[in-house]
Amino acid sequence: MQGRTADAGAMDGVARPGLLNRRSFLVGSAFGVGALGLGGCATSDGLLLAEARNTYGPMPGEKFPIPAVDISKVDPKYYRRTVSYETKEAPGTIIVDPANYYVYRVEGDGAATRYGANVGRQGFLWSGDAYVGRKSEWATWTPPAEMIRRQPEAAKYARGMPGGLDNPLGARTLHLYQNGAYTLYTIYASSDAESIGSGITSGCVGLLSQDMIHLYARTPVKTKVVVLPA
């Protein structure tokens, strides 16, 4: 694995009074992203939009009910879909393509499920092979010491932030390992629609919550993960 130590799950979200802003964990005051909007990209395709509204609708049955995604803030090219994808990797393998902000799950027979993603920002990109060492639902998030040194406001969670909608790890997390050791990198569930298609994290990879739950259910422990060079 190449790159710097990740802030495990140091992902972003929407600021709320009295809560630590998850976006500040990632980029401090330097990052600001406007609504991407659909523009003229796919508004003529009513079927695509209807499908997206269904795919990214609310999930009230979750331990912490998940609201619908505001799909107007997601470029349609990042909607979940099945695509042609030639690879020598075995079915089930997860391939992260940070240069294009996609995560693929290899389905075999030249096809893959493709998800839009956010990825590491400059200085936190890495590449290499790993595997899913463990999985967690609504995980407790603990900021690494490196992050606390950079952003002292994170110290209030040094003993852990319980799972929930405001937790940076979100509803589901795949924890990435190499040679039996936790890398501190994760594939996690993001509630920030505007982050998809951006390089904003400290090396972790975020999918929309609905997409992450979809991938998580199909990913057993020991699944191979390939992170391509950016």
Structure write-up:
The two termini are 13 Å apart. Residues 1-44 have low confidence and may be disordered. Strands 1-4-3-2-11-6-7-8-10 form a nine-stranded mixed beta sheet, covered by helices on one side. Strands 5-9 form a two-stranded parallel ribbon. The protein is globular, with a radius of gyration of 17 Å. It has one domain (22-31, 77-227): L,D-transpeptidase catalytic domain-like (Beta Barrel), CATH 2.40.440.10. It is of the alpha/beta class and 230 residues long. A hairpin with a 2-residue loop joins strand 7 and strand 8 (181-190). It has helices at 22-27, 46-55, 145-150, 209-217, and strands at 81-84, 94-97, 102-108, 111-116, 119-120, 128-137, 172-178, 181-190, 199-201, 205-208, 224-227.
Write the topology of this structure.
Layout: H1 22-27, H2 46-55, E1 81-84, E2 94-97, E3 102-108, E4 111-116, E5 119-120, E6 128-137, H3 145-150, E7 172-178, E8 181-190, E9 199-201, E10 205-208, H4 209-217, E11 224-227
Parallel strand pairs: 2-11, 5-9, 8-10
Antiparallel strand pairs: 1-4, 2-3, 3-4, 6-7, 6-11, 7-8
CATH topology: L,D-transpeptidase catalytic domain-like
Number of helices: 4
Radius of gyration from the alpha-carbon trace, in angstroms: 17 Å
Averaging pLDDT over every residue, what do you get? 83
Largest sheet: 9 strands, mixed
Strand content: 25-35%
Order of helices and strands: HHEEEEEEHEEEEHE
**What is the count of distinct domains?**
1
Indicate the CATH architecture: Beta Barrel
CATH class type? Mainly Beta
Shape: globular
Number of strands: 11
The CA-CA distance between the termini, in Å, is: 13 Å
Structural class: alpha/beta
Poorly predicted parts: 1-44
According to CATH, the homologous superfamily is L,D-transpeptidase catalytic domain-like
Q: Going across the major beta sheet, what is the strand order?
A: 1-4-3-2-11-6-7-8-10
Q: How helical, in percent, are the residues?
A: 10-25%
